[in-house]
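Dear colleagues,

As part of the handover before I leave the project, I'm documenting each prediction I ran so the next person doesn't have to rerun anything. This entry is a single chain, and its sequence is reproduced below.
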Amino acid sequence: MAKRENKKRNVYNQIADFIYETSIHSKTPRSGLWFLGSGNQSVAEHLFHATIIAYALSYLEPKADKNKVVLMALIHDIGEGRTSDHNYVHQRYGRLAEAKAVEDIAHSVPFGSEIFELFKEEGERKTLEAKLVKDADQLEWITTLRGEEVKGNMKTREWIDIALKRLKTNAGKKLGKILVRTNPDSWWFDVKDAWFIDKKVKDQKWNGKK
């Protein structure tokens, strides 16, 4: 009985360490923006948004395993908590041992084999799910660049064009073309909406007044 309780406690301790380790992603900066000269983003922010995009792409590609896509996107940069983020310039001259970092993470938790297999599959880019996640990774980068573009950074258009060429799936390519034409504020800001001119106008309509 004592051995069984000790094993259970060890599993919880492993998961507790994993939870604290993954919190470091919110403090780990994405390094590509250093070269861009504006903007800032953490690895955690990138992972969250890329996962949302991957989920949306899985809707556009019904043959994909949605749950697999989401989990793969969520962990595709998990090793960067240990290695930091390496942008394309850094990668050209030396890659950090991200695969080794993920392998070590996998050995530290009871569900590590699933993490490592998904990480490998994403890196090989052979399955539909892996291609969608890689496209989501690039589309997230494109939306980040687009956000800086509308603020006046003139470098971003060339960077966006390069990122568009990296997209592999039909859904990713179609979505990419729309994203670069869409203003990041369009989802909430409509200059034709009276609310943004006179807030009371909309309040009165909501209250049933004319």
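Residues 1-6 have pLDDT under 50 and may be disordered. The chain is about 65% helix and 0% strand.

All the best with the project,
I.
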